[in-house]
Amino acid sequence: MTQILDGKQLSALMKQQIKAETEEWTRNGGKKPHLAAILVGNDGASETYVASKIKDCEEVGFDSTLVRFDASVSEEELLDAVRRINNDAGIDGLIVQSPLPAHISEQKVVETILPSKDVDGFHPENAGRLALGMPSFVSATPAGIMFLLEHYKVETSGKHCVVLGRSHIVGTPVSLLMSRNTYPGNATVTICHSRTRDLAEITRSADIIIAAIGKPEFLKGDMVKEGAVVVDVGITRVPDSSKKAGFRLAGDVDFASVAPKCSWITPVPGGVGPMTRTALLFNTLKSARKEVYK
Q: Helix, strand, coil: what percent of the chain each, to 5?
């Protein structure tokens, strides 16, 4: 029987836990966690995502700050804003929402954020610490995936985990986490990408598939073995005239053909997405407590 890795439900539980821990932390003299977000331009998806993050902060008792810029902002002006937040002792975490305009180097922006405030886990120092098994801020989506596997007690030790996608945001960090000598972890990991040969043969050998390839409904039922665990990271707006909005949300997994073969699967929406936002809150609380960078 297929069971659902319900990110929406787990996110609600974790938010309650984060709120309770925040109340205890501040009651004992700790500073209220504070997350700052920088938003450049008027991308609809980014607007929605940042608004959700601010709402999340309110729900768990965090302070939040939103800094907005027009798409025409210069790179140096944006970097100056990052430096000001770096130097603000009252702010614990900083995210700069992507995508950024073409004239701004996303990598330069990431590298300007203080590692100790990089709650997105994208700074090279946090990526390097993760690779070395040191305390670090883990990228929110990989962290959210691990929370899901742990909460639902999905067995990972000794399993063959296939990761579709090698991005520094999801594919690479989640492959490191799944191969660690921990739980969840201790899996044998294969990373697949656009140049992988015989991809379907590899995915059919997988006990666990983490699909983060950015292609809607790419993973089909004939690419998955019976009893597999499938985690769908993708979310794409697909045109659909039957919907009021004119589109529907699709993951990287063809849910209709894949789900009947799975022991566990994440839905889209309601799977990895809510957990990504919750992991960001978790990282911000860790930053306020100085649990990573003492």
A: 40, 20, 40
